[in-house]
Amino acid sequence: MMGQAQRRSPVYLRDNAPALGTGPARLWGRLDIGPGPWQPGPMSRHIIQEASAAPDGRKTAPAALRNTGPLIEALRARLPATGRVLELASGTGQHAAAFAAAFPALEWLPSDVDPGQRSSITAWRQDCGLANLAAPLAIDIAEPWPVAPGTAQAVLAINLLHLIPEPFLTPLFGEARQALGDGGKLLIYGPFLRGSSYASEGDQSFDAALRARDPAIGYKSVEAVTGAAQAAGFTPLASDAMPANNLLLSFAAPQ
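Predicted structure:
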């Protein structure tokens, strides 16, 4: 259960720790409950980063340490065997490094809108030395993506959708469809509403804190996400239950 949000007080995440972000960047930790709504930029988010940093610039976030293992196991059944995976809002880069190691036959292409996060991703890339982990791209999901059409076999978004306004689902799915080749996979992980219901009291409390900070963001229903995906031409494939009430939603682009 989250503590009550107060002016300028940090709200610490519960056990499933859905990531908070600067734009689509996932900055795990605490939400700065400052006065007034978020204003500048289509995707800007005022978040205090809470992640330890190594001398070489690698940031380490507790939430990523917890969910990396379960995500790898779930992704084994959902990712293509070969090709390029574009990861949106890669945050600290811990996931990118771990996923590139777990799936050596895939080229892993991380991205983030925040320069500080991209620096951390670069540090993780240099530390692991994996040839299949590419340099991070600067991607704002609300703007055209710097990705050649049809060059990705999968697009992955982790703990992103509850941090963006619902109208931004349209450009997200549209750009993902353009980036993917025929039959490519779109994989989305995070907390969701089931219809209008929360999976737990903790989910309800966390969503309330998000919406108190910015009424435009918050949990999306599985049905709304699926509808936006279908409107962009995707076909629903699976909904995998994950720890702490999270889901991994899988969609396929047309063949």
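Summary: Residues 62-76 form the longest helix (15 residues).
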